[in-house]
Amino acid sequence: ADLTVSKENSAVTLVYVDGTQGWKATDTSNLNDIELQPTYITATGGTPTTSGDYKIHTFTGPGTFCVSAVGNSIGSNSVDSLIVAGGAGGGGNLAGGGGSGGAILIASPNATTLTATSYPIDIGGGGAGGPGGGTGTSGSNSTGLSLTSIGGGGGGPATCGTAGTPGGSGGGA
pLDDT tier at 34 (50, 70, 90 boundaries)? Predict the structure, then answer.
């Protein structure tokens, strides 16, 4: 973090810890003499938008979330994430409905702390409807930030009482 010494005749001892933590103030003549400046994660990838103070990166297809700089604890050094898998296709000819794609939400205070690296993102597609009276196709998984959300289960066939396939949300009978 940037450090500002705001008073004359102040003393601050700095020690370099490592590439992740950087320089740390270990001793000062008066803690009120220094101000740590907040820093935030700098990243690219997806379609970036903002909402208030938040920056959102939306992926609708495969890509890379590339973190070029990590922030600090008084700014932000972690991210909230929502990962949604593809929904499934329904069974054919008035059969069971396809299940929705599974979802993973990781948010403060359990947000993910990142390092300056590239994170591959894969967005799962939806499943096709079942042919004739057959079973629908399951949705595909979505992955990112070392997390996997499971695709929805295909809708069951037109045979009475036959269940759909399992998934993020299982397919209907």
Answer: low
Tokens representing residue 130 in the block: 């079942």
3-state secondary structure of 63: strand
**At residue 94, what is the residue type?**
L
* Confidence band for 140, pLDDT divided at 50, 70 and 90: very high
Confidence class of residue 124 from pLDDT cuts 50, 70 and 90?
very high
Q: Classify residue 145 as left (phi > 0), alpha (psi -120 to 50) or beta.
A: left
* pLDDT bucket at 128, cuts 50 / 70 / 90: very high
CA distances in angstroms from 159 to 8, 92, 155, 163, 164, listed in the order given: 83, 10, 11, 9, 11
Cα(15)–Cα(20) distance, integer angstroms = 13
Do the beta carbons of residue 168 and residue 152 sit within 8 Å? yes
Q: Which of 141, 125, 128, 126 is nearest to 91 (CA)?
A: 128
Taking 3-state DSSP, the helix, strand and coil percentages for the chain, each rounded to the nearest 5, stand at 0, 35, 60
